[in-house]
Amino acid sequence: MQFIEKTFHLKEANTTVKRELIAALTTFVSLSYILFVNPNILHAAGIPAGPAFTVTAVATAIGCFIMGLVANYPIALAPTLGSAAFFAYNVCVGMKINWATALSAVLVASILFILITALHLRELVVDAIPQDLKYAISAGIGLFIAFIGLRNGQLIVNSDSTLVTLGKFSTPEVWISLFGLILTVILMCLRVPGSIFIGMVITAIFGIAIGQIPLPHSFISTPPSIAPTFGQAIFHLKDINTMQLFIVVLTFLLVTFFDTAGTLIGMTEQAGLVDKDGKIPRIGRAFAADSTAMIEGAILGTAPLGTSVESSAGIAMGGRTGLTAIFIGIFFLISMIFSPLLAVIPTTVTAPALIIVGVLMASNLKKISWEKFEVAFPAFLIVVGMPLTYSISNGLALGMIAYPITMVATKRYKEVSLMMYILFFIFIGFFLITNL
């Protein structure tokens, strides 16, 4: 226990091993879908699904260990679906680039990420963002998470006429989601400790009881070998020799940079880790951790790893230190042999947790200076941009572009730091590269 206290400073963070364990379980259950979704996406790129499953588990576990030990943050590092989708559908399918070469592009972007981190450029960017916009980022991620939860629970579905609409209450998936949401809301109102995790467990039991969630055929299985993907990123570095691939590297770098920066700001704000001056302690270590995780992920054979928004579920359960991340990593390693059991936890079970977490994170809206339009407008673009564009980096970019414009218009341009003006042009370039 002394080693744990000395390493993670639990007393200083006002937490316990039990609380960190429950937080880790909550994040793991919320994030466990990545074990099945990420391999499916990577398989579309040509990577064998079996090895992709094992790589996803191992890469995520190592990423969590790095984050926990280096930065002491209760945040999971896992393959991000946005980057995975870009990797598979844009680069491999659309550009017809071999998946091994695409992994090399991820590795090069990761190395550049390390260099940028070593030069403290990422810290300068985060420190330059005004506090009001940091509140907006946290709240925007909350709405984004809630939207993901509503979609995963089929409470909101696609509509050809109105883009989105309410799901059909005649479908069993909706009833499972509603059961879990109502139960979790009641538990939250009653201030029951571990209410989000308890809600997920009871919801899974409810789904099994009504015959909509199948019982697993077995409980353990041998994880597939990662031999087909391991090291391919290194072996194909020589292929990164065309302008097309340089653009791919740059896109990986930009998307992961802004996604991670935005998510880290949101998660640390939610966890109460931001100090009175708006500075995030150990932010440099956190950036070093996710940069390193990107490298190990590329070498193992997966799309870029990044800060997981599902970490907010564990933070809501009281996770405050890197011990939470360590436990999450252990759960992912264990999951490799219990994969049949994980298959019985569909997104309808975890959807209520994401919706509740979205509510908790949206509380930062009250801290934004809404009475000042020059602040309110860019903050609003961030808040609505993240869920409506289904991208943290896009929402962040919209606000970062709008902020210098509104501040200059109100003759408050001297209050805008040089870095914010630089970011203005960088984000315009970001849009031109990623959306043309």
UniProtKB/TrEMBL annotation:
Q: Do you know which Pfam families this protein is assigned to?
A: Xan_ur_permease
- State what protein this is by name: NCS2 family nucleobase:cation symporter-2
Q: Topology with regard to the membrane?
A: Multi-pass membrane protein
Which PANTHER family does the record associate with it? Answer: XANTHINE/URACIL PERMEASE C887.17-RELATED (PTHR43337), XANTHINE_URACIL PERMEASE C887.17-RELATED (PTHR43337:SF1)
Database matches in InterPro entries: Azg-like, Azg-like_bact_archaea, NCS2
Where is the organism placed in the taxonomic lineage, from the top? Bacteria, Bacillati, Bacillota, Bacilli, Lactobacillales
Q: Species name for this entry?
A: Lactobacillus pasteurii DSM 23907 = CRBIP 24.76
Which family, according to the similarity comment?
A: Belongs to the nucleobase:cation symporter-2 (NCS2) (TC 2.A.40) family. Azg-like subfamily.
In this entry, which stretches build a coiled coil?
none
Give the UniProt entry's GO cellular component terms: plasma membrane
Q: Which GO terms describe its molecular function?
A: purine nucleobase transmembrane transporter activity
Q: What is its main location?
A: membrane
Keyword Metal-binding in the entry? The reply is: no
- What transmembrane ranges does the database entry give? 21-41, 47-66, 73-91, 97-121, 133-154, 174-190, 197-215, 245-266, 313-334, 341-363, 375-403, 415-433
Q: Tell me which UniProt keywords the record has, alphabetically.
A: Cell membrane, Membrane, Transmembrane, Transmembrane helix, Transport
Q: Where found, per UniProt?
A: Cell membrane
